[in-house]
Amino acid sequence: MNYNKTAIDVYKKFSSFEGNQHIASEFALKSVLKLIVNFKVKKVLEIGLGIGCIVDAVLEFSNEHGEIEYYGTESNDFCLEQLKQNVSQYNKIKLYSDVSKVSSSEKFDFIIIDGKDESLKYIQNLTHNNSIIFIEGGRAEQVALVKNYFPKPIHVQIISDYKNPAYGPFDISKWCSGGQLIFPNPNLRMKIYFWKEKIATYLKRKRRNNK
Hints:
The chain is an alpha/beta fold. Helix content is 38%, strand content 19%. The protein has a 7-stranded mixed beta sheet with strand order 3-2-1-4-5-7-6, with helices on both faces.
């Protein structure tokens, strides 16, 4: 299954749901699924499930890509109700109210941060040597916090070079947002990936300026 197609289909679906003003962008969904493919992710923790856009995309993609264990946190009553209605494979989510409730014996390949959590520092206990972290959107405060939790992390901003599509809830005059990729314990492969994304971001910024 093409991860771009999955991202677009899920984004279109969630664009019609109540609470759509807070869903991940189409490009952020593409970025998440691309990372899952490139790093062969099998176990995910999403902090701030919201109404379920990211988890739905990942689980839909996993039907053909390969089974993925999905853990998530959410405490908002509206979002908790929407998750049940919106996520077609809701029964596969291991749900917690906040990060501190997740056992430190659980280690995740991929941690996605898509909301606030007062227990964010607890992610230090939930990573292994090859874990990766993706923070949806800008969230400069959370980026700074996460980088401070690890001794030598590397971080790159991932951006798009196209504007929000007309079929979504966001302003079509603005660039489709991406996210922040952090490698807490970077190995050689991660450093190479980091530099590729760094160059891609530089080139996309140049294209943006010429549009």
